[in-house]
Inverse folding.
């Protein structure tokens, strides 16, 4: 496969995944704002999210004050902001357009109609339609993944698509956790509130029922974090994402990718054989930060090995 | 005084021509609402499928639909057979001409055409002199624009031998018609067109460099911002070949490679949809980032086939066009089966004098213009426009030709006020390789504005499905 084709497939799925995870992140805040929280806590929650997305500066260049509405608009509808949902959907579609000869027409049509429909969603929408938008984004991501898995040949095209999906998902799961751990409103003395706040996170990740089934115990930050990091059978978990990254990278291995495979294997082993207690001892926000740096490094290596090789 | 145009479907008095009788009966039985609904259904489908084109000069990334007309253009089998024979003859002669120009130049030595018209032409590529190409084929894909005059006879308006486009619309229009009106195809034998990508691939493989048994063919596109990008992606997908950009290719030791996830892979045939000027920054435009440095060296060494060949523009130049009938006689020893449109070459003093006297009734075209840009249609032009062209012609006569304003044939077309006649042309696609092959029909373009003669999509033209009826 052409390296450039692999590159477009990788970014197509990364941007779609990013759009979905942004929707989940915003959804979590929408749900949080329904809890009895001090306005300051709500503001701090958004602040932590913007920081974890690396979008704090960009936000304050455009908006004077951090309000729930402004943050929602910025992350969902701001067509000038490259990290917004509508922008991600557009970029996913642009990447698909560049490889429409490689993907099936079903996948292309799905991403194309997602983009065309996204044009009708704007910040001017009434409050009630806003959560529908988030649902719609998740639904379109589900549909696209379904169409991809149902129609794409099991070859490199699929493997690079999946590599993009899982590196993005690992990244966004850790960002979500990090923003929760760094959010001062979500910690401290208010234990009951804490349970419901982490419960909100689970619901936004579509993982609440699974938590109940696996733990049969109350929701605590540690348990939620452990589950989202360590379970190898949970599609959203970092461990699972590394499983997938490892196997898909093995499937596309070439003569220069040996070191990248070794590093993914090493990282995977930490989750496969490591203990959550040790991660905790390191300090979770710090641990999550370092993990994201490793992921970024991995992304750069994948680009060098396969996507934009020097010659 | 302009003649009454020939209508493709109706004879004088509104009586349908024999081959259109049952279709016309069906069309008359459809309500305006039903047709309007089918029409908007087609638009919605084209949008969803992303069958769009970009318009030069508009904000980058702007995509538009080419308006699709739901009334087909219908050709009877015997007319098509005559057209097909004429097209094949013409393209054989054009290929012979290009080969001759880049080798012995017999036609110039024989005095059939003035040497400076060829050798001083910007489309003449000295780099190609003496280069042998597989099978002696230069124009592997030719789009020949055909119009029908007031008498109902076909003539050639223009040869497109560089990177002719539009074939994807021919294919998509047929798919759309079959989707919207399956019952029409069940009732009558319409010649299929969907074999085109297979024929094209066979054709490209047949011209691979000597000794390559299983050639790797790629389609070279300028990229997603090109107006014909949809077509490039579509054809690559239909043929199952890689769609590459210049950045995906590189040259090493006189061999062309593409960068793949498994390392470099050799490329044998490049179906390029990029003009000569952009192909190789080392040989042509140095500022082009779209091409491949060193490609020309590989090509001249015979290690890769480029289709269409470099330098084919010398045969589709508007100042060379008037000589095509002579080429047919010269190379094939046959009488031309298809007529040219009468053409005045404004570099010639007598032709110029005539044209300047008759500007209000003529069409004036830039020799190197394309896409309906840089032309003037006398009868539709204002006095100011005519004077503007007059001074332009006087300043650079060699840059212009003139032709009579043709009464292009019309075809019933769906419009806001019902089915009404609109002017059309036809672009059949002629494939040359081991043999010459043409899928029945081609792309019919239609000028949607009432009375307009400009069918180009960049100027508000639309397209129609083209039916060749099986005998």
């Amino acid at each position: 496969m052409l390296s450039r084709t692999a590159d477009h497939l990788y970014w197509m799925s990364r941007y779609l995944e990013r759009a979905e995870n942004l929707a989940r992140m915003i959804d979590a805040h929408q749900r949080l704002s329904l809890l009895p929280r001090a306005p300051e806590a709500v503001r701090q929650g958004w602040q932590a999210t913007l920081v974890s997305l690396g979008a704090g500066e960009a936000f304050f260049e455009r908006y004077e004050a951090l309000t729930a509405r402004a943050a929602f608009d910025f992350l969902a509808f701001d067509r000038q902001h490259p990290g917004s949902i509508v922008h991600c959907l557009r970029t996913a579609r642009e990447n698909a357009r560049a490889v429409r000869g490689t993907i099936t027409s079903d996948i292309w049509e799905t991403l194309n109609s997602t983009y065309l429909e996204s044009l009708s969603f704007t910040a001017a929408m009434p409050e009630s339609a806003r959560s529908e938008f988030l649902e719609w984004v998740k639904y379109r991501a589900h549909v696209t993944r379904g169409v991809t898995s149902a129609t794409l040949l099991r070859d490199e095209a699929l493997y690079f698509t999946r590599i993009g999906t899982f590196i993005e998902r690992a990244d966004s799961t850790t960002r979500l956790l990090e923003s929760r751990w760094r959010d001062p409103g979500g910690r401290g003395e208010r234990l009951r509130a804490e349970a419901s706040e982490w419960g909100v996170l689970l619901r936004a990740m579509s993982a609440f029922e699974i938590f109940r089934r696996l733990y049969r115990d109350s929701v605590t930050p540690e348990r939620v974090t452990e589950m989202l990091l360590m379970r190898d059978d949970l599609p959203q978990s970092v461990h699972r994402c590394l499983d997938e990254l490892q196997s898909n990278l093995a499937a596309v291995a070439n003569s220069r990718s040996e070191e990248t495979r070794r590093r993914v294997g090493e990282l995977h082993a930490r989750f496969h054989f490591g203990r959550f207690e040790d991660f905790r001892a390191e300090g979770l926000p710090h641990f999550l930060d370092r993990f994201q740096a490793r992921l970024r490094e991995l992304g750069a290596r994948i680009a060098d090995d396969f996507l934009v090789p020097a010659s | 005084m302009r003649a009454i145009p020939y209508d493709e479907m109706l004879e004088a008095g509104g009586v349908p021509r024999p081959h259109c009788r049952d279709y016309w009966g069906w069309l008359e039985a459809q309500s305006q609402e039903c047709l309007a609904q089918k029409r908007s259904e087609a638009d919605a489908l084209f949008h969803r499928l992303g069958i769009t084109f970009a318009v030069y000069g508009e904000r980058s990334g702007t995509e538009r639909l080419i308006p699709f007309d739901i009334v087909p253009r219908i050709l009877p089998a015997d007319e098509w057979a005559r057209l097909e024979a004429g097209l094949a003859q013409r393209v054989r002669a054009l290929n012979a001409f290009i080969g001759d120009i880049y080798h012995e130049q017999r036609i110039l030595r024989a005095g059939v055409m003035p040497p400076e018209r060829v050798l001083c032409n910007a489309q003449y590529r000295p780099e190609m002199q003496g280069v042998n190409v597989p099978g002696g084929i230069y124009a592997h894909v030719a789009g020949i624009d055909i119009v029908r005059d007031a008498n109902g006879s076909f003539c050639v308006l223009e040869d497109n031998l560089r990177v002719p486009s539009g074939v994807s619309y021919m294919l998509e229009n047929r798919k759309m018609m079959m989707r919207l009106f399956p019952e029409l195809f069940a009732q009558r034998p319409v010649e299929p067109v969907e074999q085109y990508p297979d024929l094209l691939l066979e054709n490209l493989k047949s011209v691979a460099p000597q000794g390559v048994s299983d050639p790797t063919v790629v389609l070279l596109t300028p990229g997603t911002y090109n107006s014909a990008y949809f077509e490039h992606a579509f054809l690559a997908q239909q043929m199952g070949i890689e769609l590459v950009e210049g950045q995906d290719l590189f040259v090493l030791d006189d061999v062309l490679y593409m960068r793949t996830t498994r390392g470099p892979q050799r490329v044998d045939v490049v179906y390029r949809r990029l003009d000569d000027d952009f192909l190789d920054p080392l040989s042509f435009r140095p500022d082009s980032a779209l091409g491949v440095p060193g490609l020309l060296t590989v090509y001249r060494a015979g290690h890769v086939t480029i289709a269409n060949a470099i330098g084919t523009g010398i045969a589709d130049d508007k100042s060379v066009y008037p000589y095509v009938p002579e080429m047919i006689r010269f190379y094939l020893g046959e009488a031309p089966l298809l007529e040219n449109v009468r053409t005045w070459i404004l570099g010639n003093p007598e032709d110029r004098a005539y044209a300047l006297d008759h500007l209000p009734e003529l069409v004036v075209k830039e020799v190197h213009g394309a896409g309906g840009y840089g032309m003037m249609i006398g009868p539709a032009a204002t006095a100011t426009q005519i004077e503007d062209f007059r001074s332009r012609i006087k300043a650079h006569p060699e840059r212009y030709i003139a032709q009579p304003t043709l009464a292009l044939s019309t075809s019933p077309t769906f419009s806001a006020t019902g089915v009404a006649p609109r002017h059309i042309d036809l672009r059949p696609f002629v494939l040359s390789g081991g043999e010459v092959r043409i899928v029945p029909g081609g792309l019919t373009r239609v000028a949607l504005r009432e009375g307009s003669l400009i069918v180009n999509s960049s100027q508000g033209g639309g397209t129609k499905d083209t039916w060749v009826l099986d005998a």
